[in-house]
Design goal:
homotetramer, 364 residues, Chorismate synthase, AroC fold, 5-stranded antiparallel β-sheet
Chain lengths: 364, 364, 364, 364
Amino acid sequence: MSGNTFGTLFTVTTFGESHGPAIGCVIDGCPPGMDLSEADIQPELDRRKPGTSRHVTQRQEPDTVEILSGVYQGKTTGTPIALLIRNQDQRSKDYGNITETFRPGHADFTYWSKYGIRDPRGGGRSSARLTAPVVGAAAIAKKWLKQKFGTEFKGGMSQLGEIAIPFQAWEHAAENPFFAPTADAALITQLENYMDDLRKDGDSIGAKIDVVATNVPVGLGEPIYDKLDADIAFAMMGINAVKGVEIGAGFQSVAQRGSVHGDEITPQGFVGNNAGGILGGISTGQDITVSIAIKPTSSIRTPRQSIDKDGKPVMVETFGRHDPCVGIRATPIAEAMLALVLMDHALRHRAQCGDVVSPDFFAR
Amino acid sequence: MSGNTFGTLFTVTTFGESHGPAIGCVIDGCPPGMDLSEADIQPELDRRKPGTSRHVTQRQEPDTVEILSGVYQGKTTGTPIALLIRNQDQRSKDYGNITETFRPGHADFTYWSKYGIRDPRGGGRSSARLTAPVVGAAAIAKKWLKQKFGTEFKGGMSQLGEIAIPFQAWEHAAENPFFAPTADAALITQLENYMDDLRKDGDSIGAKIDVVATNVPVGLGEPIYDKLDADIAFAMMGINAVKGVEIGAGFQSVAQRGSVHGDEITPQGFVGNNAGGILGGISTGQDITVSIAIKPTSSIRTPRQSIDKDGKPVMVETFGRHDPCVGIRATPIAEAMLALVLMDHALRHRAQCGDVVSPDFFAR
Amino acid sequence: MSGNTFGTLFTVTTFGESHGPAIGCVIDGCPPGMDLSEADIQPELDRRKPGTSRHVTQRQEPDTVEILSGVYQGKTTGTPIALLIRNQDQRSKDYGNITETFRPGHADFTYWSKYGIRDPRGGGRSSARLTAPVVGAAAIAKKWLKQKFGTEFKGGMSQLGEIAIPFQAWEHAAENPFFAPTADAALITQLENYMDDLRKDGDSIGAKIDVVATNVPVGLGEPIYDKLDADIAFAMMGINAVKGVEIGAGFQSVAQRGSVHGDEITPQGFVGNNAGGILGGISTGQDITVSIAIKPTSSIRTPRQSIDKDGKPVMVETFGRHDPCVGIRATPIAEAMLALVLMDHALRHRAQCGDVVSPDFFAR
Amino acid sequence: MSGNTFGTLFTVTTFGESHGPAIGCVIDGCPPGMDLSEADIQPELDRRKPGTSRHVTQRQEPDTVEILSGVYQGKTTGTPIALLIRNQDQRSKDYGNITETFRPGHADFTYWSKYGIRDPRGGGRSSARLTAPVVGAAAIAKKWLKQKFGTEFKGGMSQLGEIAIPFQAWEHAAENPFFAPTADAALITQLENYMDDLRKDGDSIGAKIDVVATNVPVGLGEPIYDKLDADIAFAMMGINAVKGVEIGAGFQSVAQRGSVHGDEITPQGFVGNNAGGILGGISTGQDITVSIAIKPTSSIRTPRQSIDKDGKPVMVETFGRHDPCVGIRATPIAEAMLALVLMDHALRHRAQCGDVVSPDFFAR
């Protein structure tokens, strides 16, 4: 209830601070009998870990995951699965005036106002580092959904600052440091130069990320409040730095006519997907398509005006290891959140309606 | 858990179908001792009720609310407040082939796929009519928040189809049928003509709605999953026909630099509000600003291809009383959802941190 | 979260006060496609309603239930089922000093202390009348469990004051006003005389009630906190006037040796049932056996010392229509609570583990 | 929802198996700003740890707790507090036929039936070892309740098998290996001889434990389902081996008359405490008194008949380190559960009603 548990039936309760002894999570509700080991989880953590290119933070964290419970002889037992990731890069550095001042764009002021105390080391609990345990948990959800329904998750960057990244194919997202779903080498170079310039300027930039789930069973989502799209919006807006969420046609729907937007249906299936795979809060069986807006990193080397705990004006300038575009590493995180939402709704669905049997309705 | 309860500490559990005997809700967790009667609730219901202009559905529903419990001698007692709204306009008409076919853009296919059964009368549970009980519940939340913190809610339409509606002042939203926050008579005429043309075409259109909460206490929001912005996104995306949600700068953040986006702080307060009043998932005390994209009404008089329950192709054409732009009546609904989120978080905050005492930090 | 919702997946949210306009509940999570009408619910309400013998309160309430939603053409749709029971016997009598004084043994002092306000009419929210909606909701659960697993619920009184009621057969519970599972006419006469004497004395008495569920599937219960027995204890202790709960051997376990208590297992099944059908918090497939202690009615005609809102001493004497033994009408309520717990756990079980397929393990 | 989280606002999510790498928990919702270190928690763990006398299991576990998060510079920050206890005594012994057979009285059969798989090492998740993390979490709750209200928790054994232990004073519970609240040396000797004889017989025995909370604020408890007594019953019945729970007069209420049971009130306070400190599900401000029945340990050296996974009859005999009376170590666990319930309800109360200000009502 204090906000550190995600999900209702497949729950992920995380703990930890950026520079504390460890981060991790407890996953409850995992169906029993599924093969599981650290080898299923580590690759997902590696996709989002820092230090993999010059365009992201140079913090070195192996993010090695240990399964503490819930698995016996290589299979899930139905009991809680605890994941532990020790923080290795706890630099006992001087945090300087960060502990006394509120960095613009950061959660410093709000945590301090809410709790009367905050852990300033590396952003404490509000650090994007805390997305690691969820990515780990989502690896378990992804595996189950894949085995059960064939569901898969893909994602990539569709815009970096002012630069649009036309979609070519999801597999290209793994071929460049930006998760850009394109094989256009010139465009990749443009993105790299853009980032290099930005770093020189000591500034940062936003990004737009798209994620998609394929082979989604029909019928997931609990109207009228825990709609599938509502829970996706909740999951996405909860990711650090996200300021906007779209499902399907998103904000383009505003200027669309009903005769254009409403996806017609034929015996072979839906004709379009303006709905983004969700109608009335329930999955249609089409691809679920989501876009998110990620704000520019708040930690920049450009001096900015702020105040300290006594309300006195100060100038704040951030040094050290920071992603100049937090959007770059956001793709695996957004995929993870989408997977957790679908996993949770798959279990919720069968609680009320019994096991999902996708109607082989359309002549696909 | 089956999705018909909104909130965690101030909960609203709704029931009812568009053409059943009644709709209503049970509100649990309301603080005791607050003056309350139907007169506090009815005006909010009247703001969103149908039949108030030629641009919205002509269904005639007085939407008269009855308080069944939780109030004694004009004061809340801390026990559940049940609201009942009898459906008066239950036309026992022939629903015709609607019961056997899936209307494009509607929840017909998904409800039927999920539950194996659906109530087709007026959209059943998926009807926008079900926003009435929440608007009623939110009237209670609004009253408490106003008394406790001075918090107020405002909203209006910022775009109708392709037509942008430049903001002038919130009070104008009550002066025209579109909730347009403008006194520009020519623009209102343009909107009216636009809607008239649309009706003649038998088509519908989308809209963009903005809502704002003012005098919000600092410190509301539960990181790291039940962030205030995450819960707002959940609430908004759960409204019928919403396809996109933005907080603060929203999708504009994508092309912003950190040196532009991050709101600087001075001893007098924040310099800007790209954050939309929320940092790290916790309210900053600034205005909370939200925008939503609403898709065009799916029920249109233009024939569209679809299928029936046997998978056979059919043409679907909707007659009767439908909003050609569901966005027109969405403003009070969006305000209501925002109020419910803030109410819930106000109670959650004081559970953990004690009563909210907004630091008189800034020299406002 | 404010305590007026029972259950997690099959939830019952109740509302109403003893003398308000209506009481009722919203049931969420009911599986779709089950035949349901008021005729399934009314008989259960009739079993617990007042005025059926001279040994219970003479309040006349038909307790007629109306289904407001969630049923279409005689079948559940998977959407919330709202039940409404109008209070007919709202005597606008003078409640006299009850409104200013705290009756011993009642919730008057605690409600007033907690909320700073209380509805004194007939006990307000704390009245046993509020068990009616749950009994109605449980009728739905019972029907589903019966159809799905053959599960049935039985119960009766095993002790009235000092008088033990030896068990003969459950069906006898329907044959006398005490729900006594005996055909011993002399014993029934003894109970009647006992009650008559008590009424003459203006006093009241406690009772012990036993309930049993048969044909329970194996595997229900969520360790290690939401154990089946823990949830049963929660449900039972939450019934008005209950002061003790036992599962299986209950307090007799204290003096039992392990070699006696632990139920041995053979290829034909368990040899005994000291466990009461639950091991490690999970159902074994045996009968679930529960006993509860019900305190004597607090409202008695004997004058008792108490205080008023100003802390001044007063004498309190209760007149009017009260059950001299609330335990007499408790059997259908205890059955109802047990049914709600099993229903909820049946849905929870299949969420995580898939549909229950009771292993045909034993050669029964 | 899968049952491994205790509480609603002050939540404890546990993980781990008896012989896995580690056990632990995540505590969410702790108020910020409280001094906290391992030194506050370790003493409570030491009270319940095994190996402290010859009358309990000789398993040697230091149960050393590590705080992984939620504390900064010695103070709670309001973020999740993770506790980790590494299992040191993981004997990689041959579990022999335990893995293939179902021990009578244990959860072996039910876990296997529910999940289709079970971790047989030391009872896996169903081991009483899993009470350690909760005891750790409760140490935090106890500290907060003590500071905030002066609330304290005491407990002890009131019956061992057939031997009643008359209460003298709580402090004596710390002076003997049975948590017996008596200074009667002859009685202690009798208990020791009783246990020695039992061990020689290879048998086990039940016990009755009483716990009490003092200085409880008035007004805790959420009617009408999340009553304080209902949640206490839930908490207590969820402890391993508990088969019965009583509040106040408990099962003695059955034979009590209303004129005896109902506690009268005077300007100086309540005259008696048959209510056990709770009326209408809400605390009265009196001591909360609870009794629980604990069944005899199921693991005994006496051979017992059972079956294996193939349904074949087998004889089961347990060797090794087991408590011959699990009740002996139950006192700190029962105190812990009571503390967690009160902590949770303290936060729930102030969510709805604001900070608890116990009315200085009585002239105490």
